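Duplicate of #3305? Posting structure anyway:
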């Protein structure tokens, strides 16, 4: 079994690619962006804003970046299909 298949079968993959997981990523991204905005006078505030864009966009566009990192598909729909196949 490949690493991407193992990831697709994990509870973490199922959660992250569920509707609840997508909402959690969107909320986390917004929280990081807002935190960065409150610290925007410093470089770290800008870094937090940039980091917040990653989970926000992943949640909005149904992308699973962890799956991509382990060699699987980036599409949340394809990861969910792999979860169902197991």
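Output from current build:
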């Amino acid at each position: 079994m490949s690493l991407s298949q193992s990831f697709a079968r994990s509870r973490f993959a199922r959660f992250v690619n569920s509707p609840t997981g997508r909402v959690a990523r969107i909320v986390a991204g917004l929280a990081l962006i807002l935190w960065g905005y409150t610290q925007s006078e410093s470089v770290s505030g800008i870094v937090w804003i940039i980091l917040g864009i990653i989970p926000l966009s992943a949640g909005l566009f149904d992308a699973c970046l962890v799956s991509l990192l382990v060699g699987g598909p980036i599409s949340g729909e394809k990861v969910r299909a792999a979860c169902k196949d197991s």
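Confirmed duplicate; merging threads. The two ends are 11 Å apart (CA to CA). The helical segments are 3-8, 11-16, 19-38, 43-60, 65-69, 76-85.
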